[in-house]
Amino acid sequence: VIRPVILLFGIVAPVLTALLFRTHLFAALAILLVSHLLLLYPTLTPLSQWWGRVVTHFETPNREVWLTIDDGPDAAHTRKILDLLDRFSAKATFFVIGERLQRFPQLGRDITERGHTIANHTLTHPSGSFWCLPPSEIARQIDGCAEAIAEAGGRAESYFRTPAGLKNWFVHPALRRRGLTLIGWSARGFDTVETDPAKVASRIAKSARPGSIVLLHEGHRVDSAPEFSLRCIELTLQALAERGYSFVIPAPQQLRP
Ligand SMILES: [Zn+2]
User: How many angstroms is it from 125 CA to the middle of ligand 1?
Assistant: First the structure.
């Protein structure tokens, strides 16, 4: 219900501002400011539900979490990650970037053949601009990734994650038309900015609960620190396993906002 209210106010606010501009300057500017803030808050706050449902955890009676690994596949990392996951009897979902998968389609097949799943993380991962893309470009990003997954012989789960978690008011309608669910997270270690894998793992371990969605990345710092993503994933698996967690892919009906 909050979505149409904000959008309507976004349309009415400039009109009110124009009407009040000569007589009540500050009130006019305040109205405009508030409407902008109301449009920006759910757009720039990854787990905000104002534009539509964002899954942040799953319902489970067991001590288990859902590992999600973003931004692959990656020639240097993906196969080693698959070996790591096997070592911990872990199942995970890979949110892949379409154009990377086009470069390494075999990695997509490896992921699914070894019991994991693939999901949509856009065609080119425009992390700086996704929040302000128009509907046509959002559609191209979603459909381009879906096509890349299909070309690689994979079957995409009906899940989507936006670059950096940002989403404007065009994203949910585009997802609804395609039967896609927007997936957020509950535990992350900031492995795209943190440089110490141990800190990444301990942050995740501290915030993890049964039913948490754990956010990790691959393919970052391939040149400067080729082992970085692997260490983050390994230490996270270790820390969570020590706390008695297992690593599963939840069923769609377990997912919760
Ligand atoms: Zn990403």
Answer: 6
